[in-house]
Write a structure and sequence with these properties.
- The protein has 211 residues and is mostly helical.
- It has 8 helices and no strands.
- The chain has one domain.
Amino acid sequence: MHTFSLKQRHIVDAHKFLTTFVILALMAAYGRWSNVTAWVYLSLHGSYGLIWLLKSQSFPDKRWEAPVTLPRAVGLFGTLALYWAAPALIMINDTQAPNWYLGLCIVLYTFGIFLHFAADMQKHMHLLLRPGTLLQEGLWARVRNPNYLGELLIYGGYGLLAMHWLPLTIILLIVVVIWLPNMSRKDQSLSRYPEYAHYKRHSRRLIPFLF
């Protein structure tokens, strides 16, 4: 008899699915139906959630397949829910971002979407076609975590839309507390490859030419 096992993927997918409805509920609660910034936020974060769910079904990331206990699942969902601070602030403050600013946030989101999902697809195909080898081509040639860079641009665009310090602080904390340790563990794991030392010297951890 098959028993259901709660995985990290289920928590992440649930958050992505619920995001659109949370934003719509906030818009309804504060009556922001005529707020252009709110609609732009909904279109960006809502579409990201849908694309994520499509990716989760088409080329899932194996790290999200790890089982998770109920307390850790609650903690994971709570951490992801912090990203909802940006739409909440937009609705509460009736944020009206200028047109040029909206355009900037959309550009950041667009580049982020490309980097995040293209890098994940490249990694997925590399693991499928060349298992046991070090991925160091394409988007991974100069940055060892282009998928994280994509996420940073995506959530940076969201945070900037709120025009408030809190969402950007949340993103910074998540980068420092969660992302950077994950990247360090990944570097340690990749060090088993003989060519990794050369790859590390000629690439950056997250941001091209800087870090």
